[in-house]
């Protein structure tokens, strides 16, 4: 059995893993116990009453957190001509067309979000097996296939979060950093939960949002009283 270090042991001291607490209290505890030497990411995980193996129970979408994620997002854009210039001016980290596709096929994927103009989907479509499993495939439903590259880049850089439910019915995301204020974390968490609630699929039956938990990168996980989070 792995030995628990003093720092982690201290972080868990006094925490009841089975008790569900109000959202603000849970996030306050997470902030206080984030004692790593780096600015830990605060994460939220939700158990949903869905079976994503069925198309009418898939939960997928995007939400722009009011206070961002605290993470620097590298954006790649498939565009050419004037749209390529627009993307560069808007702050895209990588802009290209066939040359970018070749880099990706060679395994050079140095970005966190991929955006494409509609006319580039013939090129991008061939990269589905590479970008798809990484959650990077541009998708018009998520706003990442669009002629408005400036707005798409702005949203990605501002803290837009993509979400997709996993096979076990769990959806999770980073909602900020431990250095964020408590109010910022609470507002980000509620924005994320609200987005999940609005993305409720037609095939979902019974209780949709079953459980919510929050944690930090190196800290304990806490169950949240779902009644204290809007969206339930």
UniProtKB/TrEMBL annotation:
GO CC annotations, alphabetized: cytosolic large ribosomal subunit
GO biological process, one term: regulation of translation
InterPro entries: Ribosom_uL1_bac-type, Ribosomal_uL1, Ribosomal_uL1-like, Ribosomal_uL1/biogenesis, Ribosomal_uL1_3-a/b-sand, Ribosomal_uL1_CS
GO molecular function, one term: tRNA binding
Gene3D superfamilies in alphabetical order: 3.30.190.20, 3.40.50.790
CDD domains hit by this protein: Ribosomal_L1
Keyword vocabulary terms for this entry: Repressor, Ribonucleoprotein, Ribosomal protein, RNA-binding, rRNA-binding, Translation regulation, tRNA-binding
Family: Belongs to the universal ribosomal protein uL1 family.
Job of this protein: Binds directly to 23S rRNA. The L1 stalk is quite mobile in the ribosome, and is involved in E site tRNA release.
UniProt subunit comment: Part of the 50S ribosomal subunit.
Classification via PANTHER family: 54S RIBOSOMAL PROTEIN L1, MITOCHONDRIAL, LARGE RIBOSOMAL SUBUNIT PROTEIN UL1M
Protein name: Large ribosomal subunit protein uL1
Species: Caenispirillum salinarum AK4
């Amino acid at each position: 059995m792995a030995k628990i270090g003093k720092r982690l042991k201290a972080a868990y001291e006094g925490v009841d893993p089975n008790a569900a607490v109000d959202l603000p209290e849970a996030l306050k505890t997470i902030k206080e116990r984030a004692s790593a030497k780096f600015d830990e990411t605060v994460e939220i995980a939700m158990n949903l009453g869905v079976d994503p193996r069925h198309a009418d129970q898939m939960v997928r979408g995007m939400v722009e957190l009011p206070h961002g994620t605290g993470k620097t997002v590298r954006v790649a854009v498939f565009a050419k001509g004037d749209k390529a210039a627009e993307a560069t001016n808007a702050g895209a980290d990588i802009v290209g067309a066939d040359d970018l596709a070749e880099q990706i096929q060679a395994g050079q994927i140095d970005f966190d979000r991929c955006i494409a103009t509609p006319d580039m989907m013939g090129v991008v479509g061939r990269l589905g097996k590479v970008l798809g499993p990484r959650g990077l495939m541009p998708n018009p439903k998520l706003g990442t296939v669009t002629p408005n590259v400036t707005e798409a880049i702005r949203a990605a850089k501002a803290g837009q979060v993509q979400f997709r439910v996993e096979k076990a019915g769990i959806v999770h995301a980073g909602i900020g950093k431990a250095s964020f204020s408590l109010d910022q974390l609470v507002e980000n968490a509620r924005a994320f939960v609200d987005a999940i609630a609005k993305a409720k699929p037609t095939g979902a039956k019974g209780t949709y949002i079953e459980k919510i938990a929050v944690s930090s990168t190196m800290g304990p996980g806490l169950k949240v009283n779902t009644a204290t989070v809007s969206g339930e």
